[in-house]
Amino acid sequence: MFKRTKVTDGTATGQGPDAENWDGKEVGFRKKSKVPGVMITQYIEKLPEGKSHPDFTRKPIALTIQEGKFAFFKAIVTGDPKPTVVWSRNNGDVSDPARYQSKYDPNSNEHTFEMPHVKPDQADTYKCFAKNEYGQAMVTVVLNVIEVGFKMTKAPQQQAEVANCNFKKVLKRRSKVVPKAEEPEKKEGEIDPKFWELLMSADKKDYERICAEFGVTDFRWMLKKLNEMKREREEEQAEFVKNLSDLKPIHINADGTASFELEFDLLDPSSSIYLYKDGEMIPYTKELGDKMKHCLRKVGRKYIFSMRDLMPEDAGFYQLDVEDVNMFSTDFKMVDFLVKIQEVKAMEREDAVFECVISAPLSKLMWFGKNMPLEQGDKYDIEVSEDKLIHRLVVKDCMVVDKGIYAACAGIKSCNAWLVVEADKGAPKGKKTARKTTRAGGSGTDLQKVAQEQQQILDKEREERKEKIKAAREAAAEAAAAEEPEKTADSGAGKDKGAAVKVERIDKTSVAATTTVAGDSGSGHSAGKASGGAKQDGSHADAGGGHSAGKASGGARKDGSIADAGGGHSAGKASGGAKQDGSHADAGGGHSAGKASGGAKQDGSPADAGGHSAGKASGGAKQDGSHADAGGHSAGKASGGAKQDGSHADAGGGHSAGKASGGAKQDGSHADAGGGHSAGKASGGAKQDGSHADAGGGHSAGKASGGAKQDGSHADAGGGHSAGKASGGAKQDGSHADAGGGHSAGKASGGAKQDGSHADAGGGHSAEEASGGSRQDGSLADAGGGHSAGKASGGAKQDGSLADAGGGHSAEEASGGARQDEPLADAGGEPGITSGLSDIHAIRGQPAELTVKMNTDCDGAWFKDGEPLKSGGGISITKDANIHKLTIHSCRDTDSGLLRFVSGDLSTEGRITVGDVPEFDEDDLHKFSKPVIVRVGQNAAFKMPFQPQESLTVSWFKDGTELKDGGGVKIVREPNHSRLLLRDCLRSDSGEIKIQLKNPFGAVEATSQLIVLDRPGPPEGPVETVETTSSVIEIKWNPPKDDGGSAVTNYIIERQERGHSLWTKLGDVSAEKTSFRDRNVTHGKKYSYRIYAENPQGLSDSLETADSIMAGIMILSGPPGKPKVVSTSKTCINLTWTPPEDDKGVPIIGYQVEKRKKDTNQWLALNAINEPIEDVNYAVKDVTEGAEYEFRVSAINESGAGDASPPSAMACAKNPNMRPCFKDPEDFLVVRAGNSVRVKISYEAEPPPHITWLKDDEPIAPWINVINTEGMSQLVIPSSKRSDSAIYTIKAKNSVGEAFFDVEVRVTDEPKCPGPVELEQTVYGKVAVSWVPSPDQELDDRLYYVVSQHDSNTRMWKTVADRLFANTYTAHNILPGIEYHFRVYAKNDMGLSDPSQSPTWGANSNRVPISSNGVSSMEISFERPPSILVPLKVHTPPKGYQLYMTCAVRGCPTPNVSWYLNNTCINSDKNYYITNSCGVCSMYILRVRENDGGEYRVVAVNSLGKAECSTKLTVRD
Q: Which of 216, 398, 655, 1364 is the 20 to 30 A CA-CA neighbour of 736?
């Protein structure tokens, strides 16, 4: 039942801003809050600086919660000064502190409004006011409460409201589809109402599937009926919504939640929306979070219902209603995998196939690859069979990157498998192989056969439904034809074909008014079966009126009596006995997890069996109207004795975990066995004369047995909380035998009586043995009446006297003497209280007993909080000799108080406190019980909500050991929950996690599991060699000790060949196989193996073989020839040898060389066996200068090193005598002036030579440093000058000879700029540019000039001449009317100088005046023979350097210039680059060679003559 908030705008009296709490400053200015839904009123127009009106930064959130849960609202307000916060509700009072609590947390600034154990009448609109002197802020929030169970107290109220025509309050919200527990018995062939609800929400394409599922074959009738129902439904929907569209059935999302969607517009935004599952309303929140399982949220016009933490029980029929009208219905089904996907091993470029079979048709599965959802496309094909049972995923064109885990998900069910892609070893390297046409994988089973078998099962079920419907229609048609008036058939086919398929329309509200007969079966939330008994006379049969998970059954009645079976919360079976005479049989009236059975009655007496029992409570048989009562809160077995005379047999009236059995009675006597909380066995003695046998009346964990009675006497055994054995003595004369009347952990035994006397043994809390003496004359023997840890024994009596031993709290032994003739023997002294009262805690709703024992038989009175107490009103006061008892049958809160017992001047008192044992909510307990699975290194968090209570102790345990806050453990305790955080979990942290709530009334525990996942441990070794041959090596290992929390999926094997560093993967084997056969081995070679275990978390560390394993047997080579010493030096000795004459038929892969120093016996290997020397010679560099060595060699093949050769002759590590020689010296060096000069020359000589440096064949200056080291000499000039330019010669001389080497050092700097530039025109279109040489020209023979030109047309500078060694240049193409400028630079190895600017050359400027002197211009001739203006210079470049040779030639006409080397023309030689630009003739050699040296000659020839010049080129080494 759902209690919905009645939304109004009013405020109840005494709530909100009344005159007492607020000073009337209501009128002000409306302000807008940043938080929607907050109303702000500001009292003044302008606020003072730094002040503000109240506002909400976090407003309360609307809440829908189940009855009995902990409800709360939270709000955070701001404002200066600090606002005052008040809560109120529209239709009620919030002043009751037991129901409403306002709290404030200054740390978080949160205002909390709490409602513990929320009730349906608390559903309302609540308001929160925040106020200070500058204004107030107000926000409203709605609380909806879902009622649980049927409330008996509401029935009269509802009938009164019906009488007053107030139907609106009476209507109970119900779904069209009723819960399974309330479904009426279906008639043969009746159509399920879910059929029509599904059709009205489904697409037309799904009609055929739904009809086939429900067995409907008459589609015409179905469509006609559906159209009628749709019209009615659309009219109903139009009253509340419009634009209903986009109905999407429920489906599973990728994040593991389920959801369905629809779109509509509410006509009234305040209309309520309800959700149902199988006809029962379910609570939900507006955001999917940790609080509740279900969520309904709105996005625009779309409403999305979501459900998290899916379980199998979440399958069902879901509906969404707006007010009283259904909007959408969908069916959520769970399917299972009949055949799961299997691991696939595919070659590269091959297709891989995963396939599975499910139990029910499904149009689409969700496929995942490496945790990513997969869709149909170029890479993946998703295939579904026609019957929608077989599903396939095809991974096309597999590559190595596709390797991973693939999964198929159908709802909450899933299966996964590995895809292993192996590289194609036969493919050529660097080239992509062609795609293969084959497919790898599959399930390995006949999927079609499995699918056909499943389809046959589904078809059979469908056909059975069709036959039932067909039979029902035929029967209805026959009934209609016969027109029987006493029977009416309501047919869904109506006027169509006369078919009579019944369609039951179930309204959401139903009011059943009954007068004489009221049959109620299963009025609570039951997961079992509740059945009302048969009635024939208008009596009331009530079976299963509480929350029962078992079976509650009311007994059969024939005379109008009331049979009531199972009226409480029972998880077992409560059965009322049979009655034939109107008697009352009541079985199972409490919370029982066992079986409560009322005895048979034939005479109208009441048989009552049942309480809150976890065991079996059985009422005894009665034939005379007596009352048999068996059952209380028992976890064991309570059985009432047999009665034949109307007596009362009561067995097991309390919470017992053992067995309580009432004795047999035949004369109407009362047999009472097990009336308390007993964990042992309580048995009432046999009675034949109406006497009372009472066995086990307290909380006993042992055995309480009442003695046998034959004369109506009372046998009482075990009347207290005993963990031992309490036994009443035998009686034959109606006397009373009472054994074990207190809380005893030992053995209390009543003595034997034959004359009706009273034997009482063990009446207190004893941990040892209390024994009453033997009596034969009806006297009373009492032993051990107090809290004794020793032994109390009463003496023997034969004449009715009383022997009493141990009347106080004694740790020793108190013994009463033997008496045969006195009425009373007392060893306890004067009257006194031997066992007084103490403070106790009683559980609400359960019995409590307080006992006071005196050492004499005297009267007393009971008081509570000063008021006298009497029996009645749930309290019983009894006195049994010297024992006074106060029993509260069902403790209530009003029973708490100070109890006092007064007897004369003696008194004792104790306080009783009534409360409840802590308990967990079932949903929270279910959520907590789910294992928490984390990876190693992650944090594990546990949270358990509970109801706030006082004196509540919360403890956390791991594997039985209590956890304390600190280190990696963080425990947080809040009023309504506790959290446990385990940081950085290790694999060893896996285990049972338990939370315990404990208060003075008891304790409750909840258990969960922590699973820490990790990589598995390495496989267990050692690796065993099962077989080794020339072609196969087989190895074996053991599984790892620790699988990391998840099963090992496979093992990966790698191999390394001896002498190689590379490990190669051979493959993998399944987890069930722990051996591997390596068939790709070579005879004689040795191999090492390592094995990895793999699970979903990754690979383990490897298990490696201790030694290499050789394929086949070992074959070693013969010895090589004796090594010979080729040469020696102080750092190296060169050896050579010959291969062995006998290699034993196995190829030699290399050699191992060993050395032995003279005067030692140890041979040292110079190379490892896995690093063989492939040649037959070797340079031994690991030698000490001057030491003598001998050497030997061994040949290495696949089996290892063979026999060693004979040793070589002794060789000394020293250099041979040699004349000095220089190693790769540089002969030319250019240094910038001011920098240091460093000339390094390396040499070799033996013995070491004498080094001398010369400058231009003269000794060097003293400031020049020479540094000599072994094998190298270095000349250093710290700060160079131009004068340091010279040729430096190094001279090395020893006893063998001497050597010389020259190094040219040129010290230079950036050149100075040339002098003034002059321009002269002698020929039209040409201008001669001349300049004064740079001052550095004489100092630097490598200096040359660069000329740049600028004209007024292009306005850009460009280089027109480079590498000019002359001081003139002729510019060509000089046009009139254009201005020209020239710049001349000097350049050497250091770079360019600053430019020298020329004067401007332009039209009418700097022309050469031509004076004709009266002579005609035709008489002037410019022809002249060739002449050399600038001759060639001598060059001595080093070998490999570049070289420029230039000269200037003039003549008219232009002479023809030829170059000669040693009288050989080189104009056409490609090794020389020769140019002639306006008389400047240049030759360029890129790299000077030795044969480039010689005499170079330039010859210029024209028609008027010839001119030539020559030079020599010397090439230096």
A: 655
